[in-house]
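REVIEWER CHECKLIST
Item 1: Sequence provided? yes
Item 2: Single chain? yes
Item 3: Sequence as submitted:
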Amino acid sequence: MEFISHAFFVTETEYPKLQAACPGDFPFTYTEFVARVDQGIEAMADMAPMTKVYVRVDEFLAWCAESKVQPDNKSRAQYAVIIGHRQGLH
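Item 4: Structure as written out by the authors:
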């Protein structure tokens, strides 16, 4: 079985919620956010395939509260894996 990495990703509509939930982590525009995610995926291409996992920010924040974790890079990565597996992306 091939391992697939998961990139936490949100729609343009969800992006302001993500910015509000993670102050300081996303000081760039949505276009810049997309470019950064795409660059990260491209940089990982030689190591493992990576796919965008679309996340609803409210659900992510609820998961953070339930899991007693802060909405940071580590929890976003963990949540992307969880959602990716739920969507059959593994």
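Item 5: Key structural point noted by reviewer: The longest helix spans residues 30-44.
Item 6: Recommendation: ____
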